[in-house]
Amino acid sequence: MTGAPATPAPASPRKPVDFSRSAIARYIQLATLFRRRIDSGQWPLGSQIPTVDELAAECGVARATIRQALDILEDEKLIERYRAKGTFVRRRPQEALWCEVATDWSGMLRPSHSARIEILADQADVRLERIAYQIGALAPAYRHLHRRHWRHDAPFLLTDVYIDERLRDRIGRADVESKTALRLIHDIPGLTIAEARQTLTIGTADMETAEALAMPLNAPVAFVHRRAVDADGTAVLIAEGIYRGDVVRFDVKLR
Fold it and tell me: Which of 46, 78, 193, 228 has a beta carbon 3.0–4.6 Å from 237's, enabling a disulfide?
């Protein structure tokens, strides 16, 4: 004879989030937290989310702070509020991921017809002593292009591109204003790329990056480092890119 089933232990109350660990405003941190709940399905499409009072008690913040966070999600059209009914999930944030970053050579050479490139600076004869993730030997001097990439009238990428100065006369102005860094050197007649490498790291936006990409300070960004070496072993391209973390996706084919 078996005994009665054990009574499950009551669920432990969720520990309030410690928002003091970041310098980012609390309502922005909360918006990120709530956005993730929608993205993960914790708050499913069409479902009613907890009330302002419930969220304030759970997160240990003022009701006004919760409302500020929900204002952001409402502006992004992720939620809808109805008087006397509550707040409901309207759509998931993946729909905002409109910038897919290629991870293979052919994909990185593919043009992006919907993107616009803004030239912020074009400097000649820049000498580099050392760089991170270096492959090949450094050229005597580089042409430095500081560029900002736009799509849908919103900035999504800042780049610093260094191209062997000796290749300057083989790259036209129209190319600089329209082609990706790897495409610039790939299309140079007679130049053979013997090795190319891409390295991805994750970080947060500093003050200059946040301002240039119209995003909150310390918001997540992806740093993409691209290197290309010619047949003589010279690093003809050194490119550093900073992508907004909220609009990009990296897909890697494993097999």
Answer: 228
